# Entry
Amino acid sequence: MTKVNFILFFVILLMALAKINSQHQSRKLYFELDQQKEIGQKLNSEYSQLQLEQSTWAMHGRIEEVAKKSLKMKTPEPKKIILLERP
Amino acid sequence: MSLFINNKVEKTFFELSGIRRRLILLLFLAGFLTLIFRAFYLQSLDKKFLQSKGNATSTRVISLYADRGKITDRNGDILAISSPVESVWVNPPNVKITKDQKLELENILKLSAGEVDQKLLNNKKEFIYLKRQISPEDARRLQALKIPGIFFQKEFKRFYPAADITANLVGFTNLDNIGQEGIELSQNKFLSGKLGSKKVIKDRAGKIVDDLQEVKLPQDGHDIKLSIDARIQYLTYRELAKSIEIHKAKAGSAIVLDAKTGEVLAMANLPSYNPNNFREGGGPTRNRAVTDVFEPGSTIKPFTVSSALDAGILNPSSLVEISSGLMKIGSATIHDAHADGSKPFMTVSEVIAKSSNVGAARIGLMQTPKSLWSTLNKVGFGMQTSAGFPGEASGRLRDYKNWGKVDQATISFGHGINLTLLQLAQSYTVFANDGEMKPVTLFKKDEIPMGTKVFTKQTARTMVEMMEQVVEEGTGGNAKIIGYRVAGKTGTAEKIGANGAYEKNKNIGSFVGLAPVSNPRIIMAVMIDEPSIGSHYGGAVAAPVFSSVMADVMKILKIPQDIKTQNKVLPQDNKNIKETI
# Structure
């Protein structure tokens, strides 16, 4: 009887240690998960900033100005346009 | 020997008296009992208090941010987006700042020394915003200074890349991201996200190590796709601004509609404002095209005439007496602005083309008040459209039972009735859809909505052809575009002053038109308020805006031409042929 108790005592000790260990592992993993989530959020924020930046660069007013001033583009005169009939 | 040993042993032990032994045992027992009782007390009786104290040091409730939805145009171009920024707040008693740091702080936040001092020396509060919504870069620079007592709070700021071009339509939010105007206001619920929260355990270093299963997930707001096409919106705004500048007008609005679906492709207003750095209160935030009413004048005439055509009272070549452009009804005199004194009669087509008030009044009077009213009512005058824009005006169309003869005559050419530009644009969908009116919408539609039948197909087609004459040889010549048949109607109305009388020198010039005539795809309505330089007629101030925008819209939407340029008599150096991007 004492022998069994003795074994059980060690088993319970082992279990307790295992529980502590798994709790620790789980917290470590959770911390990692949380960090990854934070990175995800940061990337999302960055994405929205980039979207904003892109749409600011692509504003029609700016495109028009660049086309006219730096690229010296212009619309062809009506008489230079030949219209083709679709066969 | 053994005795000796025994003696020695006996001597090493120290015999306690029975009482002393028991006393000590009792003391030990009491000590253990105290411990047991204490443990029991802590474990059960005082548990709640202690646990809450314990949790307070290690668990935290963290808010989870939710994004406000984006507002985009029909092609996904961004019109409003939220981006993270930082707000700086201080706990004044805890702030320890050196002189250099303060200078740097003022520099980064662009605040004056006075403002900073006033906030830092305020000892009554423990939470004061130093500055809200600074850029992440500025926040990083400020964080690098490591000033104790200064904290940062993540927030979202709304950005509007199209700025003034869509400002009156999209609106803006306040610092707390609640819609204040326009779509931001009307769709606030749909756009707003719901903050979430979770309870977590933090370790000594502030790292999150576990959550406590109490997670409320944040709900991001929904995105909204408007029916607006950003390219057309830009064009419309640019050309409207040009006309307002040339004619030194007070304000102006323009609307471009998809004629088949009733979707608003562009809605521009001037004056406008920049919603990105707009302070609440004041400013030209009104979306005039929807919130302001005006007397439409001649742009109403096609309805008066169509109503008569539909009732079978007239046909396009019927003659109408115009009495050399003057007509007396009771004490009132109606006269034509574009009168040609030599002609006592005009055909119905000419009444439209030359925009004769007298002719329209006569045609109006040929009908019963009820019939004219019911036409105007069916095309949506006097009631709000289905656009659902905040602050939308319903305009005014009086009940026909209260009409006198003069009222009926003046309403026939667009006086004594008022409406918004959006109503006017919407009403013209009847001509583009063979007599069926399509309800307007500001949101992208996937299917074509059902319309209401107002006129017969025959009447609608006839009227479009008459309106083509307005552009070909009538008051709307400036609306021509190369390669396309255009129909439209000009309108010019004097504004009603504060005293209720018409003011001669304050006018509203307007133009509503559609193209291409062979299969109308686009409707555009333009309104210029109080042009002060040059002509004030709709044909001069509003029609050019129509033609320049429309020419480009045709290209953008790849709408096939319906006249061959070579066959059309149009001078090649026509000033109305606009440059395009």
Chain A touches chain B at residues 26-28, 30-31, 34, 41, 44-45, 48-49, 51-52, 55-56, 58-61, 63-64, 67, 74-75, 77-79, 81, 83 (CB under 8 Å).
